[in-house]
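Hello,

Our lab assistant flagged a job as stuck in the queue for most of the afternoon. It eventually completed. Since we weren't sure the result was trustworthy after the delay, we are filing this so someone can double-check. Below is the sequence as submitted and the structure that was eventually returned. Let us know if re-running is recommended.
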Amino acid sequence: GAFPGNLQLVLVLRPSRFIQRTIADIGIRLHRDDFKMKIVMLNSLSDLHGYVDKGQLTCELGGSLQYCHSQWIHHRTAIENFAVTVKTTAQMLQKFGTDLAETELPNDVQCTKDLLTDHTEKHDKLKDELKLAMKQGNTLLSCIKDQTNKTENHKLNPDEMENQTTVERLLAQLDETENAFEQFWSKHHLKLEQCLQLRHFEQDFREVKVSLDSLMEALLELLDIGDSVGRVVQLLKELKSLQDSAQGSLEKAQLHALHGDQLIQSNHYAVDSIRPKCVELRRICDDFSNEAKKKYDILSKSLEIHTGIDKINQWCETGVYLLASQAVDKCQSQEGAEAALQDIERYMETAKEQQLSQLRELYNQHEIVLSDLIKANVENALKRLEEVQEMFEKRHISLKRLSAKQTRPVQPVAPRPESSPKRPSPKTPRPPGQMPHRRGSENSSTKQPTDAELARKKNIRKAKGGIKIEVMHEESQGGSSHILVTSETEESLSSRRS
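-- returned structure --
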């Protein structure tokens, strides 16, 4: 073996007995050249005290140092073992830290959970090893310090002081290693937890996005804007049902985006990955809401247009029946003509009250989104409205003229002599030749129509009175019946009245 240090001087105390002293002297002389250090032979303890202070010598050498060789060996062995434990623990922590730093983060939730559990278990195991090493060092330090408690005046010798210093240094080194490892572990553990949060966020994002994409696809498939009031009402119900079913997914998407904002505010390491997903979720929600609102507006306008078409058709149908129901014979009198005129005027006012003309404005505003069938229905309804209104205008003009026409006053005519035999005329009778002359002049002044003229007027009246209106009336059973109504013109009414 080798002594742990460089020797400069060796003090040899000769034995007190003669034989032992002689053997020692012979041995020193024979092997003096083998030693590279200086050797001094001492004859007595007093010579030794000249080289070494008594406080550093044991009682056997005339000193005051309290020394137990077996105890020193025990302490040195324990210190050496503790030093090895500290070194081994530091190497284990360093290797574990290297493994953590080189670990790739998983891309799914389950693998991230497994990795977090595995690393936590290894950390806890190393943590127990650190606690055990710290306990070992503290126990050794307590054993060294307990020497001072045995006697009141006992002080630690230099070896014990050195052992205490060594143990304290090893404990400090172990504590620094533990603190450094815990700092690294805290960062790594936080990263693993944030990775797990990110994987949960990404998984929920994919589920929500699939749901929103499906809802958006279903919304975009609602292309029909209806061809009747009932159909449009049904489409509005379908749209409302789709919006109600999408409400849960939209709220979940908004909450998920809010959760992403919270992760960003917590200084998550994957901010660049989280922020675009939050923006995407909010964009999809806004697109769905805007598209649903657009569909609702279009269907609402379509409902207004179809309602307007039905109102016009109903108004026209009722108006045609009104025209057909006005009896011609009742209009021959002034009172009958005025009553019919009031009916016509009141019904014409209902067109303004029902705002039938708004259909054209709606048609002009939303023509670009209307189907060809709806456009044709609107044009037919407006054309029919114009025709019926024109009929009402003509009837209104005719009735107004008839109601304004006064009865001709009866002019007094002198009775003929032969027609009043009761009382003879007191006047002087005229010559017989004058009366026939007057009648002859009256007859000559009143021109009688010929047969050809009468036939021509009759044909004209037939042509004017021959216009027919075809009215479509839907029966309650779903069938239809046709009613032919002869349109009365002003001339026919006037001729009948006169």
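-- support follow-up --
The delay was a queue issue, not a problem with the job. The result is valid. The first strand starts at residue 9 and ends at 13. Residues 419-452, 454-498 have pLDDT under 50 and may be disordered.
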